[in-house]
Every structure is written in structure tokens, then in C-alpha cells.
Amino acid sequence: MSSLSSSPSSSSAKKEAIFISSLVILWYSSNIGVLLLNKYLLSNYGFRFPIFLTMCHMSACAVLSYFSIVFLKIVPLQGIKSRPQLLKIATLSVVFCASVVGGNVSLRYLAVSFNQAVGATTPFFTALFAYLVTFKREAWVTYGALVPVVAGVVIASGGEPGFHLFGFIMCLSATAARAFKSVLQGILLSSEGDVIETYSCHRTLILKSEPRPRYLLQDLMFTFLLPGSSQSYVDILTFALPLEKLNSMNLMLYMSPIAVLVLLPASLIMEPKVIDVTLELGREHKFMWLLLFVNSVMAYSANLSNFLVTKHTSPLTLQVLGNAKGAVAVVISILLFRNPVTAVGIGGYAITVMGVVAYGEAKRRFR
């Protein structure tokens, strides 16, 4: 009897393990795939338009987010409740654009391996902005774990054969913008910060024989019978309702169109030859449009899989998988692009990764 009862549970555990493994594979392949395709298009293919490429990514995210939420119903559709909330989303979208464009620009000048090493310093910038913006302090042990994160990148920079100052500055700026966006997102879109205006209370006299007035859902009505009278009074307390916190999929749905509206004029102004060169490349290389399409779909897939992996795994598992993903991307990029690496560079990157692991562990233990 016990074997029969354990069979369904073991079967469901196997299905869950297969499902989570599939999500992780999708997450790795889409994240690493879009990174390598970006590098190939921007450095090796002659498509030197990082702003336009980012706009293609955001266009795909806008269309596919709408399809996934409205038709596939991956998550419930959440509406924007107020103009301040829309302004907050627009602010996040602009910061997000800056981080993605900066990362794509850096890929024109830096190897993917070094790009990933610099990107691994995100926890340092996140802790810095969290302190500067919200005055949130971590334990000294947590801050101490950030020392090898920064030291590793300094060592890797000194041992990078293809070091490019402008590319390094753009990559560092993109990493800082990504960290700033995560801090802003925590502040601007928290349920505590998004509240409809105000608290008020008023008292209304009504006759018992009269029909009770209807009040909005945010009005709490307390009725009290006046002693020795046919009247009663009503205290109506109007209170602030917290707005529903947007999940990352709905946030992407609203951020993507705003990003397209920002990136399209920026691309036409800062990359004036983008239309002519893109059409010319499309005529010369029959797979040009397919590469752009696959690259853009992968950009959305990276966001979708990140959301699903976050939803179905623990924070510790996510941290371990994220660290391993960066290392896998470095190895694959070196094998594909054959960019030269040195022992010093590899050592610096290893120190950074170990610092990131130590930082995550310190945050978990010393909350």
C-alpha cells in the first residue's frame, strides 16, 4: 500500500524536476544565446548599431509580452492604476534602456569574457546605490565580501589582451545602470509606495427609513443608532488602497513600448545610416533578417525564462545558477570567438565570481 502511495508522489517529483531543468536550459540558452548573437552582429557581422538592436529587442518584448499575458495567460494582466505609477514605469524604462544600450555598445569593443567579468560587479553597485538612495546598510561582513568582487575586475582588466578604455567605461556604466534600475524598481514599484491619495473621515446623518447611500469600495461605513431618535449617523472613512505590485512580466509589458518610443528617435539621430546599412546587409546576407528576428525573440525569452526560473526555484538556487551561467557564457564565447585570454584575466574573473558567491551568502546569513 505504501509503495502505491509513494508512486504518484515520486512521479510528480520527477515531472517537477524535468520542468525546472527545462526552464534552466531555456534560461541559459536564451541568455547566453542573445549575448553571443549580440557580439556576433555588432563585432563580426558589420551591424554596428547597438541602439537600433536594442530597439528590436524591446519591440519583440512588447509584442510577445502582450501575446503571452493576454492570450496565453502566463500571468494575470495587471493594469496601471495612476499617472504617478506610469511615470515611475517610464523612469525605469529609460534607465533600463541605458543599461542595455551601454552593454551592447561595450560588446563592439570588448570580448564577451571580459564583458561578463565586469558585469559580475553588479552586486557592488547595487549595494552602493541602495545605501546612497535608501540609506539601507548591510552588515560589515557583507560589504567585506564586495572587496574581491572589485579587486577581481581590476586584476582581470590588467590581464585583458583586448582591453579597450571606451568599451570598459560603457560596460561599467551599463552595469551601474542595471544595478540602479533594480534599486529604483524596489522603491518605485513596491506596494507601500503606490497608494491612492488620502485619508479622510466625515459624518452623515440619515433617517432609518431612507435607503442607505452607496459608497465606493474604499469607503468603510460605520452606522450608529442615535439613542431615542429615528436617526442614525454614519461615519465614512475613506482610506488609501495600496496599488497592486506589478510582477516582472507585466512590468516588461508596459516598459517595452516606452523603451521603443525612446530608442527609435535616438537611433535615427545617433545612428543616421542605420536604415540604409541594414537594408544593404539584408540584400547581401540572406540570413540577416533571420538573425535579427531570432536575436530579438531570444531577448524576450531571456526575460520570460528569468521570471519563470525565479518563480519556481529558491533564491539560493537562483544565485548559484546565475553565477554558473556567467562562467558558462565565458567558456562558450572563448571557444566560439577564439579571443585571447591570459591566466591573470581568468584568475581575476574567478576572484570576482567567488566574491559574488561570498556576498550572496553573507546577505543570506546577516540579514
TrEMBL record:
<feature type="domain" description="Sugar phosphate transporter">
    <location>
        <begin position="21"/>
        <end position="199"/>
    </location>
</feature>
<keyword id="KW-0472">Membrane</keyword>
<keyword id="KW-1133">Transmembrane helix</keyword>
<dbReference type="InterPro" id="IPR050186">
    <property type="entry name" value="TPT_transporter"/>
</dbReference>
<feature type="transmembrane region" description="Helical">
    <location>
        <begin position="113"/>
        <end position="133"/>
    </location>
</feature>
<dbReference type="InterPro" id="IPR004853">
    <property type="entry name" value="Sugar_P_trans_dom"/>
</dbReference>
<dbReference type="InterPro" id="IPR037185">
    <property type="entry name" value="EmrE-like"/>
</dbReference>
<feature type="transmembrane region" description="Helical">
    <location>
        <begin position="86"/>
        <end position="107"/>
    </location>
</feature>
<dbReference type="Pfam" id="PF03151">
    <property type="entry name" value="TPT"/>
</dbReference>
<feature type="domain" description="Sugar phosphate transporter">
    <location>
        <begin position="245"/>
        <end position="359"/>
    </location>
</feature>
<dbReference type="GO" id="GO:0016020">
    <property type="term" value="C:membrane"/>
</dbReference>
<keyword id="KW-0812">Transmembrane</keyword>
<feature type="transmembrane region" description="Helical">
    <location>
        <begin position="343"/>
        <end position="362"/>
    </location>
</feature>
<feature type="transmembrane region" description="Helical">
    <location>
        <begin position="17"/>
        <end position="37"/>
    </location>
</feature>
<feature type="transmembrane region" description="Helical">
    <location>
        <begin position="289"/>
        <end position="309"/>
    </location>
</feature>
<feature type="transmembrane region" description="Helical">
    <location>
        <begin position="316"/>
        <end position="337"/>
    </location>
</feature>
<feature type="transmembrane region" description="Helical">
    <location>
        <begin position="49"/>
        <end position="74"/>
    </location>
</feature>
<protein>
    <submittedName>
        <fullName>Sugar phosphate transporter domain containing protein</fullName>
    </submittedName>
</protein>
<feature type="transmembrane region" description="Helical">
    <location>
        <begin position="251"/>
        <end position="269"/>
    </location>
</feature>
